[in-house]
């Protein structure tokens, strides 16, 4: 159970999903304060306290920065001028904003943790990466990890450069699987199945495969081998995918996403 007071600057869908997970873990809505430019953002559906006073947020134990990345440099500089002796932990979920830059804007002594969540957090199945700033304590890390585990799983990275790789994998990853499901559906329709059949079978196959992988201690490679019979239909399909270069394509895709993540961080740092 989370026994802290948590503030959110930004009450959009990701904030709403995090709040939903916190409430399920026992945090009272009375201990959550949300500030947003609109009066009823998605986070408001949870019955939390809404405020337009930053002092209410800065009095919390932790403040989640859930705003658009391009607005964060200005916001962080403004917050730095309003901090008192009791400084909260800041948790940034803004994509592309490096902790090192955010630390410069907020102040080097301000406890900060950067988080890269992903959209399945909206259905309590998120996969998040965390990186601790120089002023974050062990207690701060436990709090941040507890918050992110409320909507899925989390893992710590040792260097901020690894956040680019994590962004490429889990941050952008849901779209890769959506694309695979999309093309499988189209191929199934071309083979004679109805659109509804293709969709249902694709979704359940993807869900079942992921569920099997989660329940097993075996590697993905081993699981693939176990369901591939020599000379069978699965082997024929996999032969085509590998001959067409699926491994190279995915390696290049993740490298491109990682490079773009680093590039965007440089651009945002210059603002």
Summarize the structure.
The chain has 11 helices and 8 strands. It has helices spanning 13-24, 54-58, 72-80, 99-106, 138-149, 162-171, 173-190, 195-215, 220-226, 233-243, 246-269; strands at 6-9, 32-35, 49-50, 62-65, 89-92, 112-116, 126-132, 152-156. The model has no long low-confidence stretch (mean pLDDT 94).
Descriptive report:
The protein is an alpha/beta fold. It folds into two domains: 6-163, 3-Layer(aba) Sandwich (Rossmann fold), CATH 3.40.50; 173-261, ProC C-terminal domain-like (ProC C-terminal domain-like fold, Orthogonal Bundle), CATH 1.10.3730.10. It is 51% helix and 13% strand. The protein is built from eleven helices and eight strands. It has helices at residues 13-24, 54-58, 72-80, 99-106, 138-149, 162-171, 173-190, 195-215, 220-226, 233-243, 246-269, and strands at 6-9, 32-35, 49-50, 62-65, 89-92, 112-116, 126-132, 152-156. The chain has an eight-stranded mixed sheet, with helices on both faces. The longest helix has 24 residues, at 246-269. The relative contact order is 0.10. The model has no long low-confidence stretch (mean pLDDT 94).
Radius of gyration: 21 Å
Widest beta sheet: strand line-up: 3-2-1-4-5-6-7-8
State the CATH superfamily name of the largest domain: NAD(P)-binding Rossmann-like Domain
- CATH topology of the largest domain: the name is Rossmann fold
CATH class (first level) name of the largest domain: Alpha Beta
H/I helix tally: 11
Mean pLDDT: 94
Q: What would the principal axes of the Cα set say about the shape?
A: elongated
Helical amount:
40-55%
Write the element-wise H/E pattern from the N-terminal end onward. EHEEHEHEHEEHEHHHHHH
**Overall domain count:** 2
Distance between the termini: 39 Å
Proportion in β-strands: 5-15%
Query: How many strands, what sense, and barrel or not for the largest sheet?
Result: 8 strands, mixed
In terms of structural class, how would the helical and strand content be classed? Answer: alpha/beta
Number of strands: 8
| CATH architecture classification of the largest domain | 3-Layer(aba) Sandwich
Sequence stretches where pLDDT stays below 50 over 5 or more residues? none
